Amino acid sequence: IATRISAVIVIALTVFLYWNRDVTTTVSTEIAQKETITLPDHSIVELNELSQLDYSVSNWNEERTLSLKGEAFFDVEKGKRFDVTTKLGKVSVLGTEFNVLSKGDLFKVTCYEGLVQVRYNDEVIKLPAGSEFSLDSGNAQKSNIVIAEPHWLKDMSVFKNTPIKAVLTELELQYSITISDSISTKNLRFTGAFEHNNLNNALKSITQPLDLTYEIINNKEVTIQNAKN
User: Fold this and answer.
1) What is the pLDDT of residues 29-61, one digit of tens each?
2) Residues 95-133: pLDDT tens digits?
């Protein structure tokens, strides 16, 4: 009888620990892949490419906390405090729409609705709707925005006075292609945008303003050169 009682206790304890364990959910994305996540409180997260989101399901109602690597857009239901932790800083809100980017030495938080609080090191920054905070290689800056949502949600990459090499690298990632170039002016900079679902249109958007030409050799290789060559 004692043996049976012990066995029942062990089974009950095992079931208890199983159902009360801290379950962590991880969602990650690959190149040119986005993912929509519905959280237990019905908040929505749009996870951009090459990103990872971790959160605990078991105690979500008590602690709405996520860990982010990469970029995500959050549409948060009102309720208890909602925290997004990254390598470089922490974002806290009660209910709002905002975007967080944390890659390498770049940390950027954009508030589209409501109010968010950004904490990094010992600094606390409050961002109302229509403002953005960026921390790039240790340089902090706060600015205003005029867009209603992140461009990447509309399958667009947008640049402002960006080195052409960085633009072409983004194009390679979005279309899984290899680009070779013979551009004579290596310090070219690009202001504009390209779409994610049409390679020809994307190449035209980049090359035409800079007086460049391109050739698609196959679906995986592209060459770019100066128009005069």
Assistant:
1) 998 899 999 999 999 999 999 999 999 998 898
2) 899 999 998 888 999 999 999 999 998 889 999 999 999
pLDDT band at residue 21 using 50, 70 and 90 as cut-offs: low
| Largest Cα–Cα separation, the chain | 93
CB-CB contact of 90 with 68 (8 Å)? no
**Residue with tokens 């892949």, as numbered in its chain:** 33
Contacts 24+ apart (CB under 8 A), 91-99: 91/116, 91/117, 91/118, 91/119, 92/116, 92/117, 92/119, 93/117, 96/129, 97/73, 97/149, 98/73, 98/74, 98/127, 99/71, 99/72, 99/73, 99/74, 99/149, 99/150
Please say whether the beta carbons of 34 and 46 come within 8 A: yes
The answer on pLDDT for 229 being more than 50 is no
Give this prediction's pTM: 0.77
Rounded to 10 deg, the angle between the 199-207 and 164-175 helix axes is: 180
Q: Where are the alpha helices (DSSP H) in the chain?
A: 2-20, 164-175, 199-207
